[in-house]
Design a protein that fits this description.
165 residues, alpha+beta, Pdz3 Domain, 2 domains, seven-stranded antiparallel β-sheet, four-stranded antiparallel β-sheet, 4 helices
């Protein structure tokens, strides 16, 4: 099976560009379909077979939420199941599911798929925690976010300053 640090490069002969591309390619198949997955493991190319399962319904705690003050983010708490679904190796924090165009979040450089690990140096693991911090932040003030971006197996942590409208 697929192991940690495997890089998926093809699904049924179709090249995979990134984790979003992987999600779209897999979504084209039905539960029960057998697919060929080409991976790079330790410098070698391997072809694996996988039988697709039914996608588990999201629990109510995993539902996507928008935040009260409009900083332009939709978030969901990151769980191990959700991380696996999106091909992420990080299992905690808040997954950004949408960034509104021209919003404070977009101007700060945040993207869908980014993971908020901390706000103002405090770890966050629920949308409620994010909302509570946001409510306590005055309009015009800034929140300091520790953000992780995963791309092609690489993790990059960076700081973003998000101005509250």
């Amino acid at each position: 099976g697929i192991k940690k640090y495997d890089v998926i490069v093809e699904i049924n002969g179709q090249p995979v560009e990134n984790w979003k591309d992987l999600r779209f390619k897999v979504a084209d198949f039905q539960p029960g379909n057998v697919i060929n997955i080409k991976v790079m493991r330790d410098g070698k190319t391997l072809t694996l077979k996988a039988t697709l399962d039914e996608l588990e319904p999201e629990s109510p705690t995993q539902k996507e939420e928008s935040v009260d003050k409009d900083v332009g983010l939709s978030l969901t708490a990151l769980t191990p199941a959700l991380a696996r679904r999106y091909g992420l190796s990080t299992f905690e924090g808040l997954l950004i599911t949408e960034v509104k165009q021209y919003s404070p979040a977009a101007r700060a450089g945040l993207q869908a798929g980014d993971i908020i690990l901390e706000i103002n140096r405090f770890k966050v693991s629920s949308v409620r925690e994010f909302q509570d911090i946001l409510k306590k932040t005055e309009s015009g003030d800034e929140m300091i976010l520790l953000v992780r971006r995963e791309s092609e197996g690489e993790k990059i942590d960076f700081i973003v300053t998000l101005r509250v409208p």
